[in-house]
Design brief:
The protein is of the alpha+beta class. The protein has 3 helices and 6 strands; from the N terminus they run E-H-H-E-E-E-E-E-H. Helix content is about 20%, strand content about 40%. Strands 1, 2, 3, 4, 5 and 6 form a 6-stranded antiparallel β-sheet that branches. The protein starts with a strand and ends in a 14-residue tail after the last helix.
Length: about 140
């Protein structure tokens, strides 16, 4: 799994509150997008994780807001894996507009099976990414 990744998202009209600002809850959606793309950049889609009978669930999440985002802003969401133990992962998220920090978030995640029982983090998540031609890259 890659230690970090960055995506761009554009604030859509329906994501704004009546004041014209990006709704606070949407930052959590952007964090999830960042996590999903971090996984994909490391060679595995979340769909494939589910096909293997696993789910990555949020155990804890927080967000600190510094500056507002508005409709049509182009944002960068930087996702970084900060810690991994036998059964949990921790991520940090930084949302920026033109280099200006708008928000910082943190999440603790666990891997569970289909019945919700906590599982050890699979070896392939711990291993360095295989690269563009590696065996982990199959159809998403």
């Amino acid at each position: 799994m890659l230690p970090e990744n960055e995506i761009q998202v554009r604030v859509r009209y329906q994501e704004c509150d009546p004041m014209g600002l990006l709704h606070h809850a949407t930052y959590l959606v952007f964090f999830e997008m960042g996590r999903t793309e971090l996984l994909r950049a490391g060679g595995r889609s979340y769909r494939r994780v589910e096909e293997e009978g696993l789910h990555i669930v949020v155990a804890k999440i927080d967000c600190r807001y510094y500056r507002p985002a508005r409709y049509d802003d182009l944002l960068k969401v930087h996702t970084r894996l900060t810690r991994m133990t036998g059964a949990k992962m921790e991520h940090e998220y930084r949302v920026l507009r033109d280099g200006e920090l708008l928000a910082v978030g943190h999440a603790t995640l666990a891997v569970v099976d289909r019945s919700g029982r906590v599982q050890r983090i699979p070896h392939w998540m711990r291993a360095p990414p295989q690269g563009a031609d590696g065996p982990e890259n199959g159809p998403a």
